[in-house]
């Protein structure tokens, strides 16, 4: 079982538009409403793969009630933590050429009592979990050390932790040695304090995160592929994608694929790449099912192309 923790979930509305013209009326050609937040997306992908998951998340107000209804409709077991503030609503505008514009609301501020209830719910629900995936930004009210405390509690209970966050929350949590962290290229560059221009730059940055405490680093490099750096070595994975429809939640699908396949080694990396590649071919934040995967399109190698320039350099 994979338990997910999303401290700042959302109600996600995705609109498909021909193009985005500032100051003009833009008519959408498609619309989706989904339960959102990185951990929620991981749970959706795990469910789509036919595996058990429990989603722990604070929910409040009318948007929170709708998120709970949407999770239930998708057959996702949830452990909601009631909060006084309303769950945030996010908007994504997906253009026909693959460009995505996202507007993310800040979300509610959690009280001290709500924060502790969230941690206690994670503790209670984690019994029997194979992994806890802690994902996304922290809502207002939570100190950047909150994820570090969660990692420490999980390890004390003998549960493995996957962490997908950024900034001070990531750096502080590294001290507690999370089992795997999953930054994208921009988050990786921010963590080490310098731009990344090549695959080799990303490898060096991932190695630095391991020196700071991460036991493994699964780094998403966008269209360039993904890296896995751990005690056993370094691998580079990529997949051919003929057309990108939406990359909303693609990184979350990748993390789900990685954990479903055991969370270690090149086979798990191949699963992560296959899930991420399948997700970008789907509308909105739809998570791929096994039928959407194309494992034959995935290449994983220990011969990492360190000199290859990144198509999307991280500033």
Helix-strand blueprint:
Elements: E1 2-5, E2 10-17, E3 30-36, H1 38-48, E4 53-59, H2 61-73, E5 77-82, E6 88-95, E7 100-103, H3 112-125, E8 131-135, H4 146-156, E9 160-164, H5 167-174, E10 180-181, H6 185-192, E11 196-198, H7 199-212, E12 217-220, E13 226-230, E14 233-239, H8 250-260, H9 265-280, E15 298-301, E16 309-314
Parallel strand pairs: 1-4, 1-8, 2-6, 4-5, 8-9, 9-10
Antiparallel strand pairs: 2-3, 6-7, 11-16, 12-13, 13-14, 14-15
EC number: 2.7.1.56
GO cellular component, one term: cytosol
Organism: Streptomyces griseicoloratus
Quickly list its features.
6-stranded parallel beta sheet, 4-stranded mixed beta sheet, UDP-N-acetylmuramoyl-L-alanine:D-glutamate ligase, 315 residues, alpha/beta, 9 helices, 34% helix, 16 strands
Largest sheet, spatial ordering of strands? 5-4-1-8-9-10
Report the sheet-strand fraction: 25-35%
**Total number of helical segments?**
9
CATH class identity: Alpha Beta
According to DSSP, the number of beta strands is 16
CATH H-level superfamily? Ribokinase
Per the CATH scheme, the topology name is UDP-N-acetylmuramoyl-L-alanine:D-glutamate ligase
Number of domains: 1
Q: Would you list the SSEs in sequence order as H and E?
A: EEEHEHEEEHEHEHEHEHEEEHHEE
The radius of gyration is 18 Å
Per CATH, the architecture is: 3-Layer(aba) Sandwich
**What can be said about the biggest beta sheet?**
6 strands, parallel
Helical content (DSSP H or I, runs of 4+): 25-40%
Quote the average pLDDT.
95
- Helix/strand class: alpha/beta
Enzyme class: transferase
Organism: Streptomyces griseicoloratus
Domain Carbohydrate kinase PfkB: 16-290
Family: Belongs to the carbohydrate kinase PfkB family.
């Amino acid at each position: 079982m994979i338990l997910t923790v999303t401290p700042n979930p959302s109600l996600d509305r995705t609109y498909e538009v021909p193009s985005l013209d500032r100051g003009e009326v833009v008519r959408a050609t498609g619309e989706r409403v989904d339960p959102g937040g990185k951990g929620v997306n991981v749970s959706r992908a795990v469910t789509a793969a036919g595996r058990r998951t429990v989603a722990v998340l604070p929910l409040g107000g009318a948007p929170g009630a709708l998120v709970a209804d949407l999770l239930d409709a998708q057959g996702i077991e949830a452990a909601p933590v009631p909060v006084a503030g309303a769950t945030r609503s996010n908007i994504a505008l997906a253009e026909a050429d693959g460009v995505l514009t996202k507007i993310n609301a800040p979300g509610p501020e959690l009280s001290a009592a709500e924060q502790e209830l969230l941690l206690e719910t994670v503790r209670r629900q984690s019994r029997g979990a194979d992994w806890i995936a802690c994902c996304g930004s922290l809502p207002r009210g939570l100190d950047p050390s909150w994820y570090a405390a969660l990692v420490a509690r999980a390890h004390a209970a003998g549960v493995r932790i996957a962490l997908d966050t950024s900034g001070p929350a990531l750096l502080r949590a590294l001290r507690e040695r999370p089992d795997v962290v999953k930054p994208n290229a921009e988050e990786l560059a921010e963590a080490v304090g310098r731009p990344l221009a090549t695959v080799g730059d990303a490898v060096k940055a991932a190695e630095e995160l391991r020196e700071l405490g991460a036991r493994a680093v699964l780094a998403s490099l966008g269209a360039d592929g993904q890296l896995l750096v751990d005690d056993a070595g370094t691998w580079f994975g990529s997949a051919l994608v003929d057309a990108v429809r939406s990359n909303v939640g693609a990184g979350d699908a990748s993390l789900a694929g990685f954990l479903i396949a055991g969370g270690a080694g090149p086979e798990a990396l191949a699963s992560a790449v296959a899930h991420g590649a399948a997700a970008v071919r789907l509308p909105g934040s739809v998570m791929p099912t096994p039928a959407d995967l194309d494992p034959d399109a995935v290449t994983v190698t220990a011969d990492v192309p360190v000199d290859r320039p990144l198509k999307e350099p991280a500033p």
